[in-house]
Amino acid sequence: MVLTGQHLIAANIIASSHGTFRAVNPTTGEPLECEFHEGGGEEVAIAADLAERDFDTFRQSSDIKRGELLETIAAQLVELKDPIIQRAHLETGLPLPRLEGELNRTVNQLKMFSQFVQHGHYKSTRIDPALPDREPLPKPDLRLSQIPLGPVAVFGASNFPLAFSVAGGDTASALAVGCPVIVKGHPAHPGTSELTGVAIQRAVQKSGLPGGIFSVIQGSGHEVGTALVKHPQIKAVAFTGSQAGGRSLFDLAAARPDPIPVFAEMGSVNPIFILPQILKENSQLLAHKYSESLTTGVGQFCTNPGLLFAVKGDDLSAFIAAVKEYLSQMNPLPMLHVGIKQNFNTKLEQLTSVRGVSRLVGSETPTTLDCYALPALLFLTADDFLQEPRIADEVFGPSSVVVQCESKEQMLVLAENLQGQLSATVHASIGEDDFCRQLFAILEKKAGRLILNDFPTGVEVCPSMHHGGPYPATTDSHFSSVGTTAIHRFLRPVCYQNFSKELLPRELQKNQD
Q1: Domains in the chain, ordered, with CATH?
Q2: CB–CB of 67/229 below 8 Å?
């Protein structure tokens, strides 16, 4: 399939005159074929106006109709599977098997939302019939349902070019409930964004739904994103990326005359606590699993563990020695793009300059001339950790910090000092349950997902998953960007008082005379 390099706005393919940019192959540093047009405020205005024009038609379509749209998108992605995966491989350097798995995940989560929305229970209806004879005052008939917010801006993520980008969970959950979507394609993989956008555009056309419910606008800078968040027709924003990027969008949205919610998934170090008994019993296995977890995807998952806490002693020394051996055998691997590699180097240099921090694994002078990176392992004591909050900041890449504690009790102090996280993990043996309860009582205030005797990297896509957490992990800990509860980000409640059956929404018409 030939790329156009143009924007997909409603049912149209539109060029712009704001200049062009190219994607770069991170494994070679070479620019890839096809120049992509830079979007701007004009393209955003066109897409937003069309989205608002078609919003009522879309939101009033049936749950079955929207479910069928998601199924059709899934089918179109499968039809375009080969060109999508090949282009994503060129633009991201991610292995083909990983991308095949990610496309399957994207297809499956579209089908999951389709099945969920067609059941209709997502509206969380409540019905309180009238009590006309109640004293001293009669009670009115009250019925609660949920309606979609309106057009949603979705920002494609760099580390998941399929599952968290144009056709990812944000888009799927917004479309499922009747919100039109305008996607800001990620500049590191614009070709993948276009091909995926074509699949959705075709699905919208096949479904007979209005074209304004979906658009993709490309851009290498901040102009498109800023224009999207500030446009009065946009009613919510979904973002996956850095804390700086998410906070910037959040502040823009809050400064609008009509502030809107920004559901941003941002930084997390996903702390791991290894208790003494299990460290004594399984130090080698834990070292191997931990090393795998922190290097999966070249450390470019939001759930890679960036902090590990354990009590000092021979068992911790054996654990660290095993981790060092495992990491030292790894070859350099490409990160997603040069900007991520440069940020990785900068963050590592900042951490190694902190008093008390030693680098156990990793080059002292990492190159910034390419996208390839080696894993890094840092070490410091708990006392030094408590003196320097920067140690708890996310380093997006294959690195982690081992914090040596004086005792289990000091672990509780360290847990209390953590920021908000996507996940928090405890490894413990039988007999350590009492301390686990104390530790988890603290960690459940800090994280959206708690893990026992497993590792955080990777997120199961299912109804019970919660992928969110207190700030700065996300801008709103009430909501998840993974799983069926993700749709609640794009709904708001409406109460109907004393409505006749004929005027009520269909889902509220039962138990009405």
Answers
A1: 36-266+474-508 (3.40.605.10), 272-452 (3.40.309.10)
A2: no
Q: Is 68 a catalytic residue?
A: no
SS in 3 state form for 107-159? HHHHHHHHHHHHHCHHHCCEEECCECCCCCCCECCEEEEEEECCCEEEECCCC
Task: Tell me how far CA of residue 374 lies from CA of 15, 96, 160, in angstroms.
Answer: 40, 21, 20
Check 265, 371, 394, 405 and give the catalytic one: 265
Q: Quick one: 463 exposed, middle or buried, by C-beta within 10 A (0-12, 13-18, 19+)?
A: exposed
The helix (H) or strand (E) run that includes residue 265 is strand 262-265
User: Mean pLDDT, consecutive 10-residue segments, the chain of 513 residues?
Assistant: 95 89 96 96 97 98 97 98 98 97 98 95 94 97 97 97 97 98 98 98 98 98 97 98 96 98 96 98 97 96 97 98 96 94 94 94 67 95 93 94 97 97 97 96 98 95 96 97 97 98 93 60
Q: 421-427 and 272-274 as β-strands: parallel, antiparallel, unpaired?
A: parallel
